[in-house]
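Below: protein 1.
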Amino acid sequence: MNRISTTFKKFPRTFWVANSMELFERWAWYGLFAVLALYLTQSTDTGALGFTQTQKGSIMGTVTAILYFLPLFTGALADRFGYKKMLIIAFVILSSSYLLMGQVRSYAAVYGAFLLVALGAAIFKPIVSATVAKTTDESTSSIGFGIFYMIVNIGGFVGPIFSSKLRHIYGWDIVFVMAASAILVNILLALIFYKEPGRVKNTDPFWDSLWKSLKHIITALSDMKLTVFLIIMIGFWTMFNQLFYTLPNFIDQWVDTAMIYNWVHGFSPLIAEAVGTKKGIIAPEMMVNLDAGFIILFQIIISSLVMRFKPVNAIITGIMVVSVGIGFAFGTNNGFYVILGIFIFAIGEMASSPKFTEYIGRIAPKNKEALYMGTSFLPVAVGNYLAGIFSGPVYQSMSDKISLLEHFVAKRGLHIPAISEKFTQNDYLKRAAELLHTNQHGLTQMLWNTYHPYRIWVLFSAIGVVTIIALFLYNHFVLGKVKTQSA
């Protein structure tokens, strides 16, 4: 304890300010992102936008891919113009674009506002990471980055809880106000408390710095061992992101969470009210948020269990577990099994994600660690883009309740007005139930038994299986060949 206490005293104030800013930025981002799939697609009479799943997938996939791609270049802005100045610019963009996103309702306007959010986040990301790196040394970096990643998960856990409870009380607008307010706190932190860490000022013209960054990326990707690994890991991130892109919609449309609420209410009405809604159900975002909660509780235990594994072996094992978890989460309409799936998913995530970063650091040549680490965003970016496709048109054709119901209605020859501004998704569901002489639960069960929307689990888990096979081959042929040559 004395050693930890001594280490904590070595961190300068700017280290803690950077971590505080990360907490509020993640609070804002995940507070919105955890409910974004629902906001984009739920019925307009609830205050949501009523977009199709395809439109949702395009917005979330493309914009988030851009967010993870831009830090490869936005770091040059901070080096050129200064960390503090760019932080304030990032926070002004973020706070205003969060507010704007809650005010606009057309597809193009929402897309544009979310792009601005991505730009602000992409400016912020490399600055906060660099600040933590520059305010730690060899004796404090391990604990320092451990604190940083813990803060990421705390922000990612707290944000969705607040947005879930607030939106059910005050409506969807409050989610965007909450996100903007969290960023306003960061503006104050940057203006009053943030001190520019020691850095070598880059006086090169911005475009020269940008070109230099691009050349560095190309240099790193010329290492076939790195490039093949990054391409394979696109599969992991494509599957992984279904937890945020698709599972909230799947739970909202198909899963019975009332059974969970009633079970909790049986031993503690107070806890049931805290985690549930007035309708006596558990909101989808609260279910998905269990992933972050499990990580906070069990990351140290899982990390200690896999620390002796070689990174690639740990990644393979983790992806196996994630594939099983995603199968459980999407393979049933029983809320308890969905929770089990999320728990299994979280275990696999805890085993594989840290090892992904560790492995890239290990294969990097000496003094090129930062260069190689910068490429780790590439599979995340591409994985987000592909996740949007699977969560969009693929989910819409295989599992979207509204699309399946429209097909069912047409097949039965029933006459129901098309969904529009005046005739919402909820109106359509209500009218369909009336014509089919059932209630909403019966309608859901009828569609479930007819179209088997849960079969999408096979597709998502198959992505994981293909990734696992590719990693086995990579481990045997690529790494094995490197070892043979070095011997």
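Below: protein 2.
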Amino acid sequence: MDRKQDQVWGIGSSQPSVTWDWEPITDYWKRLGYEPQRKPNCLEIETDTGHVIRDHGSRVEISGGPPTDQQIAQMVAAAKQRGCRDIRFFGS
């Protein structure tokens, strides 16, 4: 398997840990045409490009290969919608 497929890219915020209201977060991803699945500590979204997005509230990760520009923009917009003021990118 391609090692890039195993890597995780994402954005995170230094916001203090909070309890998230998952309904507006779920609604955000649904408006983009995704069907998020609720997991114990995140929403999991399978994309039509083979990527998997995991939205933890203060951190949004994507795996399945390098993200597209559109996916990066969606992740940044998700963080901004939650009021994240400083966003850190991680991954390769």
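Helices lie at 3-6, 22-31, 69-81.
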